[in-house]
What we know:
Layout: E1 4-5, H1 13-18, E2 22-24, E3 29-32, H2 78-81, H3 84-97, E4 112-121, E5 126-136, H4 137-143, H5 145-150, H6 154-165, H7 169-187, E6 192-194, H8 196-199, H9 211-221
Parallel strand pairs: 5-6
Antiparallel strand pairs: 1-3, 2-3, 4-5
Amino acid sequence: xxxxxxxxxxxxxxxxxxxxxxxxxxxxxxxxxxxxxxxxxxxxxxxxxxxxxxxxxxxxxxxxxxxxxxxxxxxxxxxxxxxxxxxxxxxxxxxxxxxxxxxxxxxxxxxxxxxxxxxxxxxxxxxxxxxxxxxxxxxxxxxxxxxxxxxxxxxxxxxxxxxxxxxxxxxxxxxxxxxxxxxxxxxxxxxxxxxxxxxxxxxxxxxxxxxxxxxxxxxxxxx
Length: 223
């Protein structure tokens, strides 16, 4: 049977299903069973993105570690800055090239997330996207251990960090403490966002919230 692929953001899946979209569990993707009807046209698939983004270093930020984003950079993540359909294209590339396995622990049975690896130029105060990596939920929780703490899951995150890396309890505690020290230092500054890795392939990037607005947004959404 002929089919046409669709780019359906997760938040719109029920709307798409109601007008005829179908889910392919093997490809992890929505499609139109025959042709893209007028009701489904809004989700007609955009061209696939390249398997490696321009300037991306897929060896950057290897392994599992606490990877805290400075508070002055909150809400500048890729998902917050691109249209939902572009995010779906990005997610499909990153999970697909990883064979739908966590690129840290190899887990395939968990829900998979796309995580950004950022390079921080402390001299120029530039936060540049250098890699997009496929992580399972437990590994992703470790990288954002501050958020895990807010959700009451810090102990679970540390336990997973130790299980994957082989760190002792003391080593894990020291690693987390060092990560927070770096976070506090970087959070004292305003950073310029560099998403050239995405804009160079035609992904539309919207300006993130202004630095002065991010603390208020965080208080409203995280705490």
